[in-house]
Design brief:
Domain HTH lysR-type: 6-63
Structural class: alpha/beta
Strand content: 15-25%
Family: Belongs to the LysR transcriptional regulatory family.
Number of strands: 12
Number of helices: 10
Keywords: DNA-binding, Transcription, Transcription regulation
GO molecular function: DNA binding; DNA-binding transcription factor activity
Pfam family, one: HTH_1
CATH architecture of the largest domain: 3-Layer(aba) Sandwich
Largest sheet: 5 strands, mixed
CATH superfamily of the largest domain: Periplasmic binding protein-like II
């Protein structure tokens, strides 16, 4: 096989085919027809003199040769993507680039939402695709499916670069008419009240994991699927919740809530940005990170 006759796009097809082990799903991920994906598989078989994928019953399995090549080809594809990204200039005023960001609804509410208003003026055609954290975000970052992860430090994995975006405190929030906190919040009152918390993934949340590690004694009465739902569960009740301070301040502008200092010491959360090493010099991604840092300062 001569390199000057090899279509490098086939490496991308190889990477996805071995990962998906299904021609139809691989075609969908690459926005190709099934026949085009089948043709790519046929060309890969000819180029490598190997079946790459073999049918067994209703499933397809990579050959031993394909499995041995997969890590190197995956890394090569990531490096090529980074090389192409670094070679492009980035002008936010006329760029139509799509940035794919993994961030919680909390980060979207307090940071990305306000940033979008500024981007409308300085980068009107830049697009954002925001997805909630899932258990596979490390793999998606490795595969180049996402550009940036915004997450607490303890949930980041892998060797890729990470930068501090901001630090966040947690505060106790309750209905402004809550009779339990009329005379202030003590640790005894805190543990006597029912609590609202959040479950966003099997990894837990930063503050819940800390409390669990230190003998959490809260009586959990409501579990929400998103951080931004918590504030709505408090008015008219005697329940309390631990919330990110920035989010609590946003919610208190819309709801009759009272924000109080916790009656116990809690760690400060470090919200980080992580991106693939291959995109460290990507001018567009560098610009996006700068915009996020500026939004924190505003």
């Amino acid at each position: 096989m001569r390199l000057d006759r090899f279509d490098l796009n086939l490496l991308v097809a190889f990477d996805i085919l071995v990962e998906e082990r299904n021609v139809t799903r691989a075609a969908r991920r690459l926005n190709l027809t099934q026949s085009a994906m089948s043709a790519a598989l046929r060309r890969l078989r000819e180029a490598f003199a190997d079946d790459i994928l073999v049918q067994h019953g209703k499933k397809m399995f990579p050959t031993a040769a394909a499995l041995s090549l997969a890590p190197e080809i995956s890394a090569l594809v990531a490096d090529l993507r980074g090389l192409i990204a670094r070679g492009l200039t980035f002008n936010p005023a006329d760029s139509q680039r799509l940035f794919r960001i993994v961030a919680s609804d909390y980060v979207t509410t307090v940071l990305i939402g306000p940033l979008v208003e500024r981007l409308e003026k300085i980068a009107p055609n830049v697009r954002l695709e925001i997805t909630l954290p899932r258990n596979d975000i490390a793999e998606r970052l490795e595969d180049g499916d996402i550009d940036l992860i915004v997450s607490p430090e303890r949930f980041l994995e892998g060797p890729h670069p990470r930068e501090l975006l901001f630090e966040e405190r947690h505060v106790v929030v309750g209905w402004s008419g809550n009779p339990l906190i009329r005379d202030g919040l003590t640790e005894e009152v805190y543990h006597r009240a029912g609590h609202v918390t959040v479950s966003v993934s099997r990894d837990g949340t930063f503050i819940d994991n800390h409390l669990r590690d230190h003998g959490d004694r809260r009586r959990i009465e409501i579990v929400c699927a998103a951080f931004s739902q918590v504030g709505w569960m408090l008015p008219g009740t005697s329940r309390l919740a631990l919330m990110h301070e920035r989010l609590a301040q946003v919610m208190a502008r819309a709801l009759p809530l009272r924000i109080m200092e916790p009656p116990m010491a809690l760690p400060v959360m470090q919200e980080m940005m992580q991106y693939h090493q291959a995109r460290a010099a990507d001018p567009g991604l560098t610009w996006l990170r700068e915009q996020l840092r500026s939004a924190v300062e505003r």
